[in-house]
Amino acid sequence: MKMFKAMMLSTALAVTAAPSVSFAQETVNMINPLPRSMVFYPLVVGEALGYFEANGVEVNLLPSDTSIPYVAFLQNGQADLAMLDPNETINALNAGANINTVYEVMQNAPEGVVVLSDGEFGAMGDLVGTTVGLVSDRDRAFLQAALDIAGHSIDDVDTVVLGENGPTLAAAIRGGNVSALVGSVNDWASLQAAGIGLTAITPDELKASPANTFAMDAAMVEEKREALEGFMRAWSMGMYASIVNPEAVEAIMRANVPEEWEDELAGKTLFDIVLTMNIGSTERYGDLQRDVWAEIQPRMLSSGAIEQTVDVDTFLNDAYIEAANDFDKAQVEADAAAWLAENM
C-alpha cells in the first residue's frame, strides 16, 4: 500500500494481553492504512463482540495519513504492529529493518487493474500505447508487474495519478481520458455503486498474494507474546464471525462505521467486496504462505518494486498462529447470533 526506502532505528514496543479469562486491559498500538473501516472488519467485529477485551487487549489505531513508512513506527517504538504489503515488507528488510511477519491479514490481492465492462479494452496487452490511471503513485509497481506478466513494460504506457476521489476516477475512465484504472477494491466500490460497470483484467498470477500482513519488531516476539497472541486470536474470531454469520457482521459494520453507509449502495458494494477479501485461504487463519512469498519475489524484482529477494525463513515467524486459531467456533457463532438478535 505504500513504498519506501529508508534506514530505521530499532527500539521497543509496548503491549500485553491474553486468552479468555479476565485480564487487565493493555493497549496494542497498531498502524494500518485506514481508520476503523469495513475494509478491515475483523477489528470492528472483534471489538463489538468483546473479543479484544476478553483477551486483555485494547486497540489503539495510530493515524495512518502519514508519508512516514509504517515500519518506522515499529522501529521507533510507537507501534506494536504495522500492517504492511509485500513491497513494504521486502523493502524494509532490504533496508536493514529487523522485522518479522507474524500474521497474514489478507491472502488475496485487493489491488487490481480494471477497465470499463463495455469498453474497447479487454486485456493487459490492449493498454499498450494508452494512458492508465493510478489511484496513487504506489500503484505503479502493481501495474508494472501486471504488464511484465503480459509480456510488456511500464514504458509501453503512460500513467497519471488521479487520487482517491470517486468522481475524479469516474470522470477519467468514463470520459476516455484513461484506458484503465489501477487501485484496490475499495476504490471501485463507489464507481460500481454509481452504475459504472468495471471488469478486472488483472493477471491471475497477481491474485494470490499476502496482500496485507501484520509485522512487528523481531526482537519483541517473545516479550510481547501474551499480548499479541490475544490480539491475533481476537482478530481471527472477528474474521470467523463473517464466515458463519455475514448478516450479523454487516449489521455490526452499519452500526459502528455509519459514515461508510451514507450512500447505501456504495456501502453494500464495498461490504460485499471486502467480505471475502478478509477470509483466509489457508487452513489456519493468518497462516504464513512461504511458497507464495517465495514465488512473488522474482516478479517484484523484475518490476523494480524491490532491489533484491529475501529468504522467507529469515522473516516469516508463525509464533502466534497456533494461539490465533485457539478459540471456540461455536461460541463465536452464538455471539454473532445473539448480537444480531439484540440489535436488530
TrEMBL record:
Pfam families the record matches: NMT1
Annotated protein name in UniProt: NMT1/THI5 like protein
Signal peptide feature range: 1-24
GO biological process: thiamine biosynthetic process
Domain of life: Bacteria
PANTHER family: 4-AMINO-5-HYDROXYMETHYL-2-METHYLPYRIMIDINE PHOSPHATE SYNTHASE THI11-RELATED, RIBOFLAVIN-BINDING PROTEIN RIBY
Swiss-Prot/TrEMBL keywords: Signal
UniProt key word Signal: yes
Chain ranges of the SsuA/THI5-like domain: 40-248
